[in-house]
Design goal:
SDR family oxidoreductase, alpha/beta, 7 helices, Rossmann fold, globular, about 260 residues, SDR_fam, oxidoreductase, two-stranded antiparallel sheet, about 40% helix, NAD(P)-bd_dom_sf
Length: about 260
């Protein structure tokens, strides 16, 4: 029997890509799922309903801005009021600008930093205090990126021009990794773990139209959202109860150090 049966998992950026795949994977393992996004999550909810129609899985939609503390605070209260528990938070929602340092604007810098880093901070803080703390258990799973480790891997939008994730994205994801380790050290004694998954090139809206030099990877293909979802399920499950503060690279070997 799944160790996630009856658990409650909150997934941000759940309308598509890694977030949708993660929500579906967690639901298949028996977890109730809360789909969080500023975009509609109808397709994700429909897929989950079709896959789990004979189970007791509950799907809850929440359209909020994860950069807004009041909205995040109310989300956690609403989830706890409905389920009387919060077991897992998957901080996946993110934005990615690709302007270089010379052309980076204040607006795009602040967008990426606030969505990717502030959003992770708010969702983690509001879930842990007081809910996970009072439960004496919980799992925080932060989706970072190998960009936060490598400073942005190269991709190609055509045969000549090279592109990579911009400095704001790299800085925000590096910040997520550092925040993950900081939180892990803080909340371990409360029975809570905090880990990060650092995807490499994955087929999502963020990478659409880009061609990565896959010949340089060990596994010579683009990643799929389901590849990341498998790592999410591991960190959400009891199999990772003795693992915290870790950054798991799911990148086809593109960031072997």
């Amino acid at each position: 029997m799944s160790t996630l049966k009856g658990n409650v998992s909150i997934i941000t950026g759940a309308s598509r890509g890694i977030g949708a795949a993660s929500a579906i994977a967690l639901a298949k393992e028996g977890s109730h799922v809360v789909l969080v996004d500023i975009l509609p999550c109808d397709e994700t909810k429909k897929t989950i309903s079709e896959l789990t129609e004979s189970s007791e899985t509950i799907v809850m939609n929440a359209s909020i801005d994860i950069k807004n503390r009041n909205e995040v605070h109310q989300l956690m209260k609403d989830v706890y009021d409905r389920f009387n528990r919060i077991d897992v938070v998957v901080n996946n929602a993110g934005t990615c600008s690709r302007l270089d340092l010379e052309n980076m604007t204040d607006e795009l810098w602040e967008r990426d930093i606030n969505t990717n880093l502030r959003g992770t901070f708010l969702m983690s803080q509001e879930a842990i205090y007081p809910y996970m703390k009072n439960q004496g258990r919980g799992k925080i799973i932060n989706v970072s990126s190998i960009s936060g480790i490598m400073g942005g891997p190269f991709a190609f939008s055509n045969g000549e021009k090279s592109e990579r994730s911009g400095p704001a994205y790299a800085a925000s994801k590096g910040g997520v990794i550092a925040l993950t380790k900081w939180i892990a050290k803080e909340v371990g004694e409360l029975g809570i773990t905090c880990n990060s998954i650092a995807p490499g090139p994955v087929e999502t809206e963020i990478t659409k139209g880009l061609n990565y030099p896959l010949e340089n990877q060990v596994v010579k293909r683009m990643g799929r959202p389901e590849d990341i979802a498998g790592a999410v399920v591991y960190f959400a499950s009891a199999h990772s109860d003795y693992v915290t503060g870790e950054v798991l690279k799911v990148c086809g070997g593109s960031a072997i150090g």
